[in-house]
Amino acid sequence: MDTKTAIENLDRVIAEVETARLSVSHHHIVKIIGISKYSTAQDIEKLYEAGQRAFGENKVQDLKQKSETLEEFPLEWHFVGRLQKNKINNLIDLNPTLMQSLDSLELAQELQKKLESKSKNMSCLLQINSAYEESKTGILPEDAISTYKTILDTCPNIKLKGVMSIGAHVEDEEAIIKSFKTTHAIFKELEPLGAIYCSMGMSNDYELAIKCGSNMIRVGSALFK
Ligand SMILES: *Cc1c(COP(=O)(O)O)cnc(C)c1O
């Protein structure tokens, strides 16, 4: 990807985000995370030059490699993938800005143990499987509030900041909207408990997600094409 392409891609996404967010409210601010999992450190650098600062990876090894390569830049790094138990320590050592894919109570408890033993904290989002898709991990909507509270009560080193979900993987727009609305309703219920991020929307559906209340979008292919 050359500099011109990076600027064009970012400008297009920013313009579309702007229209979508203003249709909600002038005060509805949306944070864009560039998901760089299919891209190189060089591409990330091009987007950095265009103004993008927050990036996300779905594999601990890639997060390590790219964040170390780009150490000199003031970037923030998010983790958005399925976290295997044997990679927890590696992720903790990388100090991610936000771990968005806390997808079970069991993983939370495992993470808590390891954070405690290293005297570290980690900011996380609880991943909700709001489309009820078997291929996806995450907490089912009906269990989301109680699981969130249990983590707040029993995992002091995990700093919960909200929820994340992946929209329904279907053509039917109504079904996608329904899954976003489900996640957003959970987010609203969790706001009094300190939730600040409702992370939903990817390259194909971020405008829809923002209109359903998303304030954090995870954009890969639309930025890195
Ligand atoms: C890959 C990925 C994205 C970005 O997907 P695009 O469709 O390329 O925008 C967002 N969120 C998660 C969890 C991902 O794994």
TrEMBL record:
Source species of the chain: Candidatus Marinarcus aquaticus
Domain called Alanine racemase N-terminal: residue spans: 41-224
SUPFAM superfamilies in UniProt: PLP-binding barrel
Protein name: Pyridoxal phosphate homeostasis protein
InterPro entries in UniProt: Ala_racemase_N, PLP-binding_barrel, PyrdxlP_homeostasis
The family this protein is said to belong to: Belongs to the pyridoxal phosphate-binding protein YggS/PROSC family.
Keywords assigned by UniProt, alphabetized: Pyridoxal phosphate
Secretion signal, residue range per the UniProt entry: none
Annotated function: Pyridoxal 5'-phosphate (PLP)-binding protein, which is involved in PLP homeostasis.
N6-(pyridoxal phosphate)lysine modifications at: 37
Highest rank taxon of the organism: Bacteria
Swiss-Prot/TrEMBL cofactor(s): pyridoxal 5'-phosphate
Keyword DNA repair: no
GO molecular function: pyridoxal phosphate binding
